[in-house]
Amino acid sequence: MVSKFTSTALAALAVATAAPAQANDLRETLAADMPELMELYRDLHANPELSFEEHETAAKLAARMRALGFEVTEGVGRTGVVSVMRNGDGPTVLLRADMDGLPVVEQTGLPYASAQTATPASGVTTGVMHACGHDTHMAGFIGAARLLVDHKDQWQGTLVMVLQPAEEIGLGALAMLDDGLYTKFPKPDYALAFHDAAAPAPAGTIGYTPGYALANVDSVDITVKGIGGHGAYPHTTVDPVVLASAIVMKLQTVVSRSSSPLDPAVITVGSFHA
After folding, report:
1. CATH for 2-193 (3.40.50.720, 3.40.630.10, 3.40.50.300, 3.40.50.880)
2. Higher pLDDT, 124 or 81
3. What is the pTM of this model?
4. Distance between CA 70 and CA 229 in Å, rounded?
């Protein structure tokens, strides 16, 4: 059901602006595609890959885009994929989806739950899961591509569809830009992106905003080094666990005491290894 909502979300603009007969045609096409899209979604969910390690995912989706008739370039920004379709004169529109999973052990109990493991930059081997919904992004991405290809007679212009790596660590978009996303490929007049969300909108609804949204993230790894000793003689040691815990608590005051309450800001310590 999430995948159906996601696929519809990417095609929402076309449905909203189409005549009633055209909108019904789009819905019927999507409904016919849904069983295969759900199969793709389950496969992607069961086989997540970490940031900049999305090799099999990228190859799998690139093959589908080629089969739809797109000009496909792999390896953009390390593991990103750019697909271009030219359909006469008109604006250039970019659609984007994420690919990477998270270093999270899946405990959903789903029959297609991920059993994958990997070792991220932290050096700690962990399970891998599409806990942030990028599997729905990719299934919706393919669903939108199919709809647009099937209805080429109803639009004109250039379609650029981007599969971005490494969104979870905030580096994938930068890597693709540095690799010439807007110089090697048609520069978009309009860019559309979406993300599924657990809140605040109710399930089955679509929220939107013009301009920039959720557009900036910075991350830092902090290593706290101590001096070892016996646990019964802590006064002879420098305990990095206590120091690191104090840092976590102090970081919470950066937003509450160092930034304007009118400026949105969030600081999250997402992982702690001691």
Report:
1. 3.40.630.10
2. 81
3. 0.84
4. 62
